[in-house]
């Protein structure tokens, strides 16, 4: 019951009342330390009160709980060294990491905890010492891997075509080699080494990604921008395309260019994932993700309807015409592609002035130019501008959350020998087996001066008020006018002293 009340207090809107009641309940807890403590009992979602405060973005309760966990090591003038307990914060020995819970929640208030002590210092320590070097090495390794795969695709086994052309529009001069013909020369053996590296890399990608999908869940894993949701889809699809290409090569199936082309595009697009490790590029990748999966996805539905309607109309108009004189609409797939190019103004309106064009072509093209070019493209620009304005206010905050998510991901996947535990063991200071983070805090003396002056003004106001009451008690029998004059004199004196105090405060500031 006590643990349930603690969880309820974390969700209370009245933060001050919740903190006082939280302390009151813990004062009756017999097992204040160890696994039997009320603070260490998790709810049905596996969240302790401390983790629940982080997930809900309750910064007041989080700071209150952290103040209870800190130990002042020493103080010298304005400098103070504090040890913060990293229990439930550090992701080293946690199955459900506190940092991962914060970056995976949809509440913006929760991300503000990443700027509070000691979370900010812990993330900075992990990222600067181990996260950034490992992430840069991983980015370089992936780029070299993609260069290897690209070279294997460029020099894939081809041979001249020997069969006769079946159509005047047939432009094929090379065909794919059979498996027995693909690995004969020394150059083929070098390409085979690159292909083996590519396939091994695709298998490693799937082995690393599938356990995280099962642990987090597909909806959260692919739907969270901070966790790299779209990039996980891209890299998994890329790995699958590599395996499909391998099967088609082993079975000598024609058409391997289709999965190979998809793999090249997806593999190189995934390089943008590594931009999150750099402050100059990371926020812009967030902007691109928001625009692609927000504005562009909705716009594509409207664009598809317009292209489908006008492409059908163009195909019907030129269905009776000679395709040699105007071949952009000679069949239905080509009509769809040409209409798409016209929609994006990649090409001008096709026309051949040596022959008579159908009258309806001019009418339909006029309507298409008005709707597509003038209306819908400007609508897309306005939508993206609005998204840019909204995301610009929180892109740096989202980038910091991405850095945290990347740090946790690297810490989980790297061996323990390559990523030592952060912090200081409490046995060095007689604090048990828990781990602590040492933070040096500098106290601003001017801030304390201002606080003292404020307290002095409050005390001065109370003294003036008490003196006024004493005058009223003594002069109870004096006339009403004299009482008013006495009160006015007291107020003027208070104003004069307050003005003098504020002048002192301004000079010190």
Automatic annotation (TrEMBL):
Compartments (UniProt record): Membrane
Residue ranges of domain Ion transport in the record: 135-393
Gene Ontology BP, a term: calcium ion import across plasma membrane
Membrane spanning stretches: 134-158, 192-210, 231-251, 257-275, 296-318, 359-381
Annotated GO MF terms: calcium channel activity; metal ion binding
Membrane topology classification: Multi-pass membrane protein
Thylakoid found in the keyword field: no
CC terms in the record's Gene Ontology section: plasma membrane
Keywords: ANK repeat, Membrane, Metal-binding, Phosphoprotein, Repeat, Transmembrane, Transmembrane helix
Source superkingdom: Eukaryota
InterPro entries, alphabetized: Ankyrin_rpt-contain_sf, Ion_trans_dom, TRPV, TRPV5, TRPV5/TRPV6
PANTHER family: TRANSIENT RECEPTOR POTENTIAL CATION CHANNEL SUBFAMILY V MEMBER 6, TRANSIENT RECEPTOR POTENTIAL ION CHANNEL PROTEIN
Protein name as annotated: TRPV5 protein
UniProt source species: Nyctiprogne leucopyga
Gene that this sequence comes from: Trpv5
């Amino acid at each position: 019951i006590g643990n349930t009340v603690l969880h309820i207090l974390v969700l209370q809107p009245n933060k001050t009342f919740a903190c006082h009641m939280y302390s009151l309940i813990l004062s009756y807890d017999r097992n204040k330390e160890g696994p039997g403590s009320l603070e260490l009992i998790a709810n049905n979602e596996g969240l302790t009160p401390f983790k629940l405060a982080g997930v809900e973005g309750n910064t007041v309760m989080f700071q209150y709980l952290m103040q209870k966990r800190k130990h002042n090591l020493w103080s010298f003038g304005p400098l103070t060294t504090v040890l913060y307990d990293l229990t439930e914060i550090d992701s080293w020995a946690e199955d459900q990491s506190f940092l991962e819970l914060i970056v995976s929640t949809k509440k913006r208030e929760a991300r503000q905890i990443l700027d509070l002590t000691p979370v900010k210092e812990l993330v900075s320590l992990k990222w600067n010492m181990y996260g950034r070097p490992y992430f840069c090495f991983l980015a370089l390794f992936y780029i070299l891997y993609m260069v290897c795969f690209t070279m294997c695709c460029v020099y894939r086994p081809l041979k001249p075509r020997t069969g006769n052309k079946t159509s005047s529009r047939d432009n094929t001069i090379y065909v794919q080699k059979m498996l027995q013909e693909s690995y004969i020369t020394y150059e083929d053996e070098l390409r085979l080494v690159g292909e083996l590296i590519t396939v091994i890399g695709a298998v490693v990608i799937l082995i690393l990604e599938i356990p995280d999908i099962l642990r987090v869940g597909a909806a959260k894993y692919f739907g969270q921008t901070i966790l790299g949701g779209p990039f996980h889809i891209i890299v998994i699809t890329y790995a699958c395309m590599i395996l499909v290409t391998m099967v088609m090569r082993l079975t000598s199936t024609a058409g391997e260019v289709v999965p190979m082309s998809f793999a090249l595009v997806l593999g190189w697009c995934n390089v943008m994932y590594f931009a999150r490790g750099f402050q100059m590029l990371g926020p812009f990748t967030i902007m691109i993700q928001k625009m692609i999966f927000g504005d562009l996805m909705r716009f594509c539905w409207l664009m598809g309807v317009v292209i489908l309607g006008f492409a059908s109309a163009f195909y019907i108009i030129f269905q009776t015409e000679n395709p040699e004189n105007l071949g952009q609409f000679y069949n239905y797939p080509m009509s769809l592609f040409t209409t798409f190019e016209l929609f994006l103004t990649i090409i001008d309106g096709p026309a051949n002035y040596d022959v008579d064009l159908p009258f309806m072509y001019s009418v339909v093209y006029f309507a298409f130019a008005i709707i597509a070019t003038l209306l819908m493209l400007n609508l897309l620009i306005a939508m993206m501008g609005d998204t840019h304005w909204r995301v610009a206010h929180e892109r740096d905050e989202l980038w910091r959350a991405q850095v945290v998510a990347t740090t946790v991901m690297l810490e989980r996947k790297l061996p323990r020998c390559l990523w030592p535990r952060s912090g200081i063991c409490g046995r060095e200071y007689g604090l048990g087996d828990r781990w602590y983070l040492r933070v040096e805090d500098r106290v601003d003396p001017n801030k304390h001066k201002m606080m003292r002056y404020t307290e002095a003004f409050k005390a001065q106001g109370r003294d003036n008020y008490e003196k006024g009451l004493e005058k009223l008690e003594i002069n109870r029998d004096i006339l009403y006018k004299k009482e008013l004059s006495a009160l006015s004199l007291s107020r003027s004196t208070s104003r004069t002293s307050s003005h003098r105090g504020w002048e002192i405060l301004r000079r010190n500031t």
